[in-house]
């Protein structure tokens, strides 16, 4: 739990501990980065407004690590630009302040479900030409090279590949991939854009993850 507001950290940590989590706190970015190296946490709750190294830079540095630790961001209500940038940098989810601690616990549990043993996996690897996704091992490869994907990026890619040729609205993807029945649909847009940068030869003219105008997105096999 990374937040320089001791009251917020204390309340959130008490709720997370009641839910069965082992939680440690950091009040600044440098301490948080050192703690991740030392403790190898399963997830980081990260406030964007931090002294010294801010939350966006912490997020960027965590995304260079091979373990791909999931990140749930905390943002102020009016910080839409920072929220979008955080998602582009690889955050898996976000909660806006002021927030309900119970909602944050649910978001943490939702993200962890997608990294744990109960994550959805069909068993047989998914394949489309030079793109292959192994849901059991949670590994995606393009032309034999392993892709660096966040939890949500991997889940989104696997979901779309399991339903080739079917168009999904952003609201549908938000519910079926994120597990949200409500929320900011721009989250989906940001993740699709970031995923295209990793799986498309030309992200500006995508062949695999195509836009269905007025609807949402569709996975179009190219293999």
Question: How would you explain this protein's 3D organization?
Answer:
It holds the Pfam family Response_reg. One of its GO terms (biological process) is regulation of DNA-templated transcription. The modification 4-aspartylphosphate is found at residue 47. One of its GO terms (cellular component) is cytosol. The chain has 223 residues and is α+β, with helices and mostly antiparallel strands. It folds into 2 domains: 6-113, 3-Layer(aba) Sandwich (Rossmann fold); 126-219, Orthogonal Bundle (Arc Repressor Mutant, subunit A). The protein is 40% helix and 17% strand. The strands form 3 sheets. Strands 4-5-6-7 form a 4-stranded antiparallel beta sheet, with helices on one face. Helix 1 packs across helix 5 (101-113) and helix 3 runs parallel beside helix 4.
Put simply, the count of helices is: 8
What do the pLDDT scores average to?
87
Summarize the amount of helix as a percent range.
Answer: 40-55%
Sheet bearing the most strands, described?
4 strands, antiparallel
CATH third-tier fold name of the largest domain: Rossmann fold
End-to-end Cα distance, whole Å, is 43 Å
The percent range for strand residues is: 15-25%
Q: Order of strands in the sheet with the most strands?
A: 4-5-6-7
Keywords: DNA-binding, Phosphoprotein, Transcription, Transcription regulation, Two-component regulatory system
Protein name: DNA-binding response regulator
Domain Response regulatory: 1-112
Modified residues (4-aspartylphosphate): 47
Kindly summarize this structure in a few lines.
The chain is of the alpha+beta class and 223 residues long.
């Amino acid at each position: 739990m990374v937040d320089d507001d001791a009251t917020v950290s204390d309340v959130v940590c008490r709720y997370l501990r009641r839910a069965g989590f082992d939680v440690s706190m950091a009040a600044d970015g440098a301490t948080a980065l050192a703690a991740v190296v030392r403790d190898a946490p399963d997830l980081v709750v990260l406030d964007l407004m931090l002294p010294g190294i801010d939350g966006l830079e912490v997020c960027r540095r965590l995304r260079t690590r091979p373990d791909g630790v999931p990140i749930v961001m905390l943002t102020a209500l009016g910080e839409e630009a920072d929220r979008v940038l955080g998602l582009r940098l690889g955050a898996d989810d976000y909660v806006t302040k002021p927030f309900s601690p119970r909602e944050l616990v649910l978001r943490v549990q939702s993200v962890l479900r997608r990294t744990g043993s109960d994550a959805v996996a069909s068993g047989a690897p998914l394949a489309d030409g030079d793109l292959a996704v192994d849901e059991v091992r949670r590994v995606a490869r393009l032309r034999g090279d392993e892709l660096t994907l966040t939890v949500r990026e991997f889940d989104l890619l696997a979901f779309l590949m399991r339903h080739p040729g079917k168009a999904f609205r952003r609201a549908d993807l938000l519910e079926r991939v994120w597990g949200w029945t409500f929320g900011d649909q721009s989250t989906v847009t940001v993740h699709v854009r970031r995923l295209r940068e990793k799986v498309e030869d030309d992200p500006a003219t995508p062949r695999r993850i195509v836009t269905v105008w007025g609807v949402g997105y569709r996975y179009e096999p190219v293999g």
